[in-house]
Amino acid sequence: MREVPSRADAQRLAELLPPLLTRRTGRRVTAITELRTLSGGVSRHTWSFDAVDEDGTVRGLILQQRPGFALEPGIETSTEAALLTAAREAGVPVPELVVADPEGDDLGLPSLITERIEGETIPQRILRDERYDAARAVLASQYGEALGRLHRIPVEGLALTRQDPVEYTREVLDTLGDPHPALELGVRWLEHHRPPSGTTVVCHGDFRNGNGIVGPDGLRAVIDWELAHLGDPLEDVAWSCLRAWRFGHPMPVGGFGTYGEFVAAYERAAGRRVDPEAFHWWQVAGTLRWAALCAMQTVTSRSGTRESIEFTAVGRRICEAEFDLLLLLPTIWSQNPEAQMRSPS
Fold it and tell me: In 10 A of CB 293, how many CB atoms?
């Protein structure tokens, strides 16, 4: 099955967007220009375009549409729209919501249109390009502060469900068919070392380097909210610090910062302390989840369910995730080269 936006899709959107934006924003849009697809994600079709008003005003916008297939289904589009609004009210840097078409009545697929915030999302560029030298010096603190504010979003009124990481990973492993002893060991370790439940908050679900828009001044917006759910705040904190999101760079937080910078900013903004032992448990849980997702992408690619070079490339990274998992399990190595990961301080 192949679900890649085509030239016909672009032509159709160019026709449908002006009346929709005119009707929903009160500004008469006469033309859509610079319409193009953006790369970088596998769960959404993302388009960038300029909306031109009758007076010549040009507004840069982003359209995200949910295709029929997604590796992780994610939240409903209507819930994501409500969450973006709540996040903005809580002081989290997010793009402004312009139009929500949750049922796809206007555009054919469930869709969100937001303002376009200029900046970079590709981690390798953020970590290497000279233009982001100053940004890298402050990104860990900015990400920590943004996450702390995110975890203050009121949970009431949001149609979010709670996820159990152990049950989720166990369900994934049971559907794979192939044996993965390292992952089974990880699940067993989690089951025997589960920390007490923390406060229930809105979790972003994929808060990391790569899901933020970064400019020379640092973090400009947190994006890609489709995996949001209710959970323990340390799930997001630990996920941000996985080795996978360092992209080969030595700094433990996103490849650009230290645990101390990130956690201190988070604790100030969230008003709660990060417990080192619970943090470590969630790092194991996060690494295990990432490994399971890699395995799922391998199965999906091999079966032909989704023709995607990205799925194939990510799927082969399961060996890296298994290695990271074994490094985190203290029962495996008496001299753990990643022992520093047991404490974020």
Answer: 20
